[in-house]
Specification:
It is elongated and about 85 Å long. The chain is an alpha/beta fold. It has an eight-stranded mixed β-sheet, with helices on both faces. A five-stranded parallel β-sheet has the order 2-1-3-4-5, sandwiched between helices. It folds into two domains: 177 residues, Rossmann fold; 216 residues, Rossmann fold, CATH 3.40.50.10300. Bound molecules: cytidine-5'-triphosphate. Cytidine-5'-triphosphate (CTP) binds next to helix 11 and strand 16. The site of cytidine-5'-triphosphate has 16 residues, from helix 11 and strand 16.
Length: 412
Amino acid sequence: MNDLAGKHIVLGLTGGIACYKAAELCRALIKEGATVQVVMTEAAEQFITPVSMQALSNRPVYGSQWDAREPNNMPHINLSREADAILIAPCSADFMAKLLHGRSDDLLSLMCLARPIDKVPLLIAPAMNREMWAHPATQRNLTQLQADGATLLGVGSGFQACGETGDGRMLEPLELLEDVIAFFQPKVLAGHHVLVTAGPTYEAIDPVRGITNLSSGKMGFAIARAAHEAGARVTLVAGPVSLATPRGVTRINVKSAQNMLEAVVEYARDASVFIATAAVADWRPANAADQKIKKDGSGKTPQLSFVENPDILATLAQSERGKRGLTGQGEGLFCVGFAAESENLLANAQTKRLSKGVPMLVGNIGPATFGQDDNALLVLSEQGVQEFERASKLELARKLVASCAYATKDKA
Ligand code: CTP
């Protein structure tokens, strides 16, 4: 996808060993469709050369406020006026202190000060030693910078170039990319807590075997990401899948349908939207064996009997809060179900929406989408049926999140 198509980003590098990651970040931004203008401080040039950054960004790099290439000799004005955002990555402790005081003795800080504050957002990705990061001066500066309107993209934790371990590493390029993409998405679910279930469940037969299904969890994870991008607080209750957790999303791992129900009931308490994408096993073995079931050599197969699992979506939809959320207005829980069908999608989905008692149900053809990166959806609600044509799961998730936001728009 070209999530940053049409965006022009000024990528500012300040002095820090994390400059090597800025090279990768520059490539990633461009790959996603952005144009990137690199501006470097003198200290940054100690760590990576402007030649590398020029080659990667395909534009001359700026470093001095006296750069005569600009006809009016005002690169701080020209470069900041054309930007959709200024991203400082890495942002050193020293540069943060400088920004805080509005000092402007080099091109990058001058440009940050000269930017139209309401039109050109400033995003910072700090990078420093853990003691520098934890220092009250840094933390104080950070709080003030955020109060002044800067967006903090956070820091990573782990092994640092100095040999110490702790907080303060710059986030990885792909994490920063995800954050930058999220930054530009409309915040249509700000103020909401969105709860999502995803993936299959696993129903144990004995300690080493169980019953599960082919759900990959990709659609649910994409919805969790899209809801976070839309400004919601997101809890993702995931069955056993090995997908990476989307940035900023709280993930609760569960195994069985029963575990999933317990987690969902707990986290639904203060949620305003519940989106059930999980492929919950309909049945579980009635009595899971405590020890591994052994072959006894007779050729006889174990006799398994099953009991029905609780219907998580229906339980929530029929709860007091679920009923109050039916209209999408007021203090209730707006429940959205998925229907994985193999035929007669519209008719089956319509029946399922009514039988589950949910205001919105999304139909898809299970075998055509399990494990894929794209999908096609039918979105059914009281207002009618909307068709979302085949697209990537993330694109569809963003459209679905917009529909949920529309349905609950007076609620947050
Ligand atoms: N669901 C649930 N708990 C279950 C079964 C399903 O929460 N025990 C939810 C799914 O997450 C999905 C919706 O209900 O949002 C429909 O799931 P689906 O598997 O399509 O339908 P079922 O209700 O299982 O009905 P059937 O298998 O007969 O089509």
